[in-house]
Amino acid sequence: MEIYQIRAFVTVARLGNLTRAAEALSLTQPAVTAQIKALEQSLGVALFDRSGGRLALAKAGEMLLPTAESLLVLGAQFKSEAQQLQGSLQGVVELGLPSEKPDFLRLGELAAAITQRLPLIELKTQIQPTAVLAEQVSTGRLPAALTIAAHPPRGVLCLPRRTVRYRIAPPTERAALLKRGGWRGVAQLPGLDGPAVSHTHLRLRDMFERHGLSSRIAMQNDDQANLE
């Protein structure tokens, strides 16, 4: 069963005449007749009643005509959608994602946008700590990554998605002391740090190094989730 055979059946059924159907299809009458007979053989039923020298829909033809018309509509839609995809990017894209998985990155929104705008792209993700992602992208082992960084590695194209502000939340009784002591006072407070390759650790270290200080870490937590 071929789509052109179904088209011939529907055209003859609509026009009720082989000659006019052949003209509409830009075919000869014998060619249209041959297509319909081939379709009937494929389906195992007679679509037209040819008795009495006339051509009329048989009972099976009447029942199958709506489905045949729907198939032609779906075929046209199928072709249209395929034409829209012509020239679209296709292939597999590997994307690194931070194992910390902070909510503000909105990873679900990114995946949905890629699927909608690039339907032929298969997205494969690789979960790694922030520092590892930066190193793999800079060395070419990973083509791209969505990560958190104050200073991206040199030679890496960085497209900022959003700015994130970090705040220091000291105990109430230490607030006045911190206002007087500034960053040096903050550095003297015992702090909780994340894994050495996490964005929390990297941002904390960078923040103090810019002021010529190092933080006083009371506890190094290997589970980033406990800090969020």
UniProtKB/TrEMBL annotation:
Q: Which Pfam families match?
A: HTH_1 (PF00126)
| Gene Ontology molecular-function annotations | DNA-binding transcription factor activity; transcription cis-regulatory region binding
Q: Known PROSITE patterns for this protein? A: HTH_LYSR
In this protein, which residues make up the domain named HTH lysR-type? 1-58
Signal peptide annotation = none
The alphabetical list of record keywords is: DNA-binding, Transcription, Transcription regulation
Q: Does the keyword Ion transport apply?
A: no
Record flagged with keyword Membrane: no
Q: Which domain of life is it from?
A: Bacteria
Q: Which family does it belong to?
A: Belongs to the LysR transcriptional regulatory family.
The protein, known as: LysR family transcriptional regulator
What species was this sequence derived from? Achromobacter ruhlandii
* Organism ancestry: Bacteria, Pseudomonadati, Pseudomonadota, Betaproteobacteria, Burkholderiales
